[in-house]
Write a structure and sequence with these properties.
Elements: E1 5-7, H1 12-19, E2 24-27, H2 33-38, E3 46-49, E4 59-62, E5 65-69, H3 74-80, H4 85-91, H5 97-100, H6 105-111, H7 118-125, E6 128-131, E7 135-137, H8 138-141, E8 156-162, E9 166-173, E10 180-189, E11 192-198, E12 206-207, H9 209-217, H10 222-225, H11 243-261
Helix pairs in contact: 3-4
Length: about 260
């Protein structure tokens, strides 16, 4: 790890100012950034910790919208997002207790790991990602593996989730990392059915439109049975599983998620 300075602002204004300095980088829960620094794959001169900014934390409900502060940990989401059971259950499956008590939803969405759970929840819910400068629909936010619509020094301050009628998340996890080898989040709401897949594609999280169309007509696991799985050529292929295997899992996990959502 290279040497760096650490600043810990207590307001968004001070955080933005600190990030305006040359070679600065934001630090949220640190579950990805700290290992990266230890491996000397990044060398910022200043880390700007967001952990002391109170306005970035907390879970609230207003009507049919659940809002989660960007600095809210996975453990807090699991405990406090009861108004959206499918989302709370997803947060409780992330990593292990140490990860859940340090990692944050804003950090996860900013990093957009192709196997992370929250991107599937955001895309599968039709969420809105709120930053210090604007609001971005999830459909426009995720732009490929580790790529997002965030601009330099832009901070995820909150995520707004419309609360659906039904929702569930099922993942086939890699046992060592507990990331999703394939994870599927399904929701049924006023605007129809959404199916978001993480862990599978070379392009990161994506919506499976064919499944959405079938489930809009019949929200039952059987509606997915007749569909062909996505192409294995578009899927990640590594020592944990081939592209064809992951494509097969997309269909299997979708059926299980729908069954779980239906109770």
């Amino acid at each position: 790890m290279y040497s760096f300075d650490l600043v810990r602002p207590t307001s968004m204004e001070d955080a933005v100012a600190a990030l305006g300095q040359e070679d600065s980088q934001p630090l949220s829960g640190g579950q990805t950034l700290i290992p990266t620094l230890k491996q000397r794959l990044a060398m910022p001169s200043t880390l700007v910790s967001l952990s002391a900014i109170a306005e970035l934390k907390g879970v609230s409900v207003d009507g049919n919208t659940l809002t989660i502060g960007g600095g809210t940990t996975h453990a807090e989401v699991a405990a406090e997002a009861g108004a959206y059971p499918g989302l709370a259950a997803l947060a409780g499956q992330i990593g292990d207790p140490a990860v859940r008590n340090r990692g944050t939803i804003g950090g996860s969405l900013a990093n957009n790991d192709p196997s992370a759970c929250y991107p599937a929840a955001a895309l599968g819910s039709g969420a809105t990602i709120v930053t210090n400068t604007r609001e971005v629909a999830a459909d426009d936010y995720f732009q490929g593996m580790f790529a997002t619509a965030l601009e330099e020094n832009e901070i995820v301050t909150a995520v707004k989730f419309p609360i659906p009628e039904k929702a569930a998340y099922i993942k086939f996890q890699q046992p060592a990392s507990r990331f999703a080898l394939v994870g599927v989040f399904v929701s049924k709401g006023a605007d129809g059915v959404r199916v978001a897949v993480t862990g599978a594609s070379n392009d990161g999280v994506f919506r499976w439109s064919e499944a959405e169309e079938a489930l809009n007509g019949n929200f039952a696991a059987d509606a997915v049975e007749a569909l062909s799985a996505p192409s294995g050529a578009d899927m990640i292929s590594d020592l944990h599983g081939s592209g064809d295997y992951r494509a097969h899992l997309v269909k299997v996990m979708t059926k299980r998620a729908v069954a779980k959502a239906n109770g």
